[in-house]
Write a structure and sequence with these properties.
34 strands; alpha+beta; five-stranded mixed sheet; nine-stranded mixed sheet; binds zinc ion
């Protein structure tokens, strides 16, 4: 995952579901009243009986590795663009007795209980034409208990997914021009089964005239109604769909036996104009990835890419596809939109690191079993490293631009993470569960999902260390190709998922370059600084410095975040449109002067605030050593603060360490 914005769900998960897949399904307690088995009564009794519905309440059965009998048919209507409703009709084969239906909660790639249950509405369950009573679990709000009457073989389940209108409601996935369908938002499934043992036959109705892409096989298409071939619930949820009024599909690996496509939807037709050099870089990404990570683990791959100001931010990995969103200018403003262009390389790398091989704690049997996130510094940290490496090797970034991006990451962790004092890297792996990326009051002190970028710095360190230890004969590339390869020695079909543990990582690295990797990682996972682990940069031949001129990467980042960046000088970001402080660095000059989030800059040294005037004031203060005077406003209060800061403008850059081996450039060089 990368830069995903989702709405928070504060809920307790079914504790019983966390205890492992081995046990038999737990039937509801004996106290269950109402129709069951031979004693079943007509459905109407359970609806009209009134009074005590507690009888339908029970624990949620744990998932078992046995086939769910029959095929669920799932019909989704995504044509209600004005009301932004997805309408769902499911037909679920059942047997008489207690049944628990689950709405997916723990979504792979989110690493968190964020299934958008707040958008789940209008649940109506019918059996034999009659409405059935259901009851939400008292603890697990994603679970719905009911009793299936005798002689009923299928349930008709209807509901809507009321998708957000605004970003503060959650991810906007329906716009007048784009629909992003994540099947987990439009399905309920019977508890008690591994999701790879549940078969679903999906059908989707799209707005008329729209095109779509998904890594699903089509049974038939009649106009705007698409019937897909039956598949497992696991594969269905792992195969989202992007549809749009404006659509363009590009072949990224012409002539290859295994197709890789870039399918683009956008706010407007003009956003789909792609220059040959841009297409060439995306095609090189495929070949550079194969060169780095080995043969693919999919039978086809779809990059789903939405270029939009309205469709929600996303970067979410799947085995045969990925969901990506960039600004409408991704292609047409290529020179200005470089920051974040590692997104596609990042999500593509997840095929190997995350989907095919996954930390054992993240390989859960269904979508309602809690995940264990402690290895996210590998799952996401290594992937972030690969994203940077592949963005450079493919030419999506120039080598110089890649160095600017590295400087930005290094500076952020080295200078803007005072919270390292209380919170170590491993502890940040709990962050997806703590908060769904809502803005924090004191980001630099609280810390966020730093396992992405700090993990990335550590993997650069590992790469350069292997090179040093082996006299440049080996590198992380060797580790990747063996660790992420399918085991061809085992007979039979290659599995779609092979799990790993921390010990597996240590062992694989040891085999490549003898070293105490165990202690190495333990030290870095529990370090409190001060300062970021920059050994990899140093051994790569480069050091972090600060200059008065922002890099192109910094400018691109400013534009995307809609802020002016004074982080490393005065210690804040300020909104371009709002003139409000968007982030204040803990312990920086602004913090020391009592400035905080939401403060509006009114005037600089007695004149109306503009970003340029503040830049000039910082430069002047360096010369005349006079404090900068800011008139600021909080709510309806005005005040004047003086910042005694005399070090001038500061923006991160990398500088060569003279005579040191330039391993970073070697790492960034194309292989194909
Ligand atoms: Zn990721």
């Amino acid at each position: 995952m990368k830069r995903l914005l989702l709405v928070a769900i504060a809920t307790l998960s079914a504790v019983s579901a966390a205890q492992g897949p081995e046990k038999e399904a737990v039937p509801p307690p004996e106290t269950v009243a109402g129709p069951s088995g031979d004693n079943a009564q007509p459905a109407a009794e359970s609806v009209d009986g009134g009074g005590d519905h507690a009888g339908a309440r029970g624990e949620v059965p744990m998932a078992r590795d046995v086939p769910y009998p029959g095929t669920i048919t799932l019909k989704v209507d995504s044509t209600d663009l004005q009301r932004r409703l997805f309408s769902v009709h499911e037909s679920i084969p059942v047997r008489a007795g207690p049944l628990t239906l689950l709405y997916p909660e723990w979504i792979p790639g989110n690493h968190a209980p964020r299934g958008p249950i707040d958008g789940f509405a209008g649940l109506l369950i019918r059996a034999g034409g009659r409405a059935l009573e259901w009851q939400r679990d008292a603890v697990n709000v994603y679970a719905f208990h009911l009793i299936v009457p005798a002689n009923i073989e299928r349930l008709d389940v209807e509901f809507q997914f009321a998708s957000p209108f605004f970003h503060d409601q959650g991810r906007v996935v329906m716009t007048p021009d784009i629909v992003g369908l994540q099947w987990n938002t439009v399905v309920v499934y019977p508890a008690g089964y591994y999701v790879r043992r549940i078969i679903v036959q999906p059908e989707l109705t799209l707005p008329a005239g729209w095109e779509f892409a998904a890594a699903l096989d089509i049974e038939q298409r009649q106009g705007n109604v698409i019937s897909f071939k039956a598949t497992t619930l696991e594969r269905l949820v792992d195969s989202p769909l992007f549809a749009g009024r404006y659509f363009r599909a590009l072949d990224l690996d012409p002539g290859a036996a295994i197709a890789v496509r870039l399918s683009v939807v956008a706010d407007g037709l003009e956003n789909l104009i792609i220059r040959p050099a841009q297409l060439a870089a995306h095609r090189r990404l495929v070949h550079e990835t194969y060169a780095l990570l080995g043969p693919p683990h999919y039978d086809r791959y779809e990059f789903l890419l939405a270029l939009s100001d309205h469709f929600a931010e996303i970067g979410l990995e799947h085995l045969r596809s990925s969901e990506n969103r960039r600004s409408p200018g991704y292609f047409i403003d290529w020179d200005k939109t470089g920051a974040g262009r590692d997104l596609l390389p990042h999500e593509f790398s997840h095929v190997w690191n995350g989907k095919f091989r996954r930390p054992v704690g993240l390989a859960t049997p269904d979508y309602n079993t809690p995940m264990h996130d402690s290895l996210l510094w590998v799952y996401e940290g290594l992937t972030n490293y690969l994203g940077y490496v592949l963005a450079a090797r493919s030419g999506l970034w120039s080598e110089d631009y890649a160095r600017q991006a590295w400087a930005s990451v290094a500076a952020n962790l080295d200078r803007d993470r005072a919270g390292r004092a209380w919170r170590d890297l491993e502890d940040t792996t709990g962050q997806p569960i703590i908060t769904p990326r809502r803005p924090l009051s004191w980001l630099s002190w609280q810390r966020t999902e730093d396992y992405y970028t700090e993990g990335q710095l550590i993997w650069l360190d590992v790469d350069t260390r292997i090179r040093e230890l082996t006299g440049e004969r080996r590198s992380l590339d060797d580790f990747l190709r063996s660790f992420f390869a399918a085991n061809t020695q085992s007979a039979g079909a290659v599995p779609e998922l092979v799990t790993y543990t921390f010990a597996d990582i240590v062992q694989a690295l040891k085999a490549l370059a003898p070293f105490d990797w165990q202690t190495y990682f333990a030290t870095r996972l529990h370090s409190h600084g001060p300062g970021a682990p920059l050994d990899g940069l140093t051994r790569g031949g480069w050091k972090l410095v600060f200059t008065e001129i922002p890099s192109d990467y910094t400018r691109s980042l400013e534009e995307q975040r809609k802020v002016v960046d004074f982080t490393y000088s005065l210690g804040f970001d300020v909104g371009i449109q709002t003139a409000q402080l968007a982030e204040v660095r803990w312990g920086g000059p602004a913090y020391e002067a009592g400035l905080a989030l939401g403060t509006t800059l009114i005037a600089v040294n007695g004149r109306e605030y503009t970003p340029e005037r503040l830049r000039v004031a910082i430069a002047e203060a360096k010369l005349n050593k006079q404090p900068i005077e800011l008139l600021v406003k909080n709510l309806d209060r005005y005040r004047t603060v003086r910042l005694a800061y005399f070090d001038g403008l500061m923006y991160p850059q990398l500088e060569r360490i003279e005579k040191a081996r330039d391993r970073l450039s070697v790492i960034m060089k194309p292989r194909t």
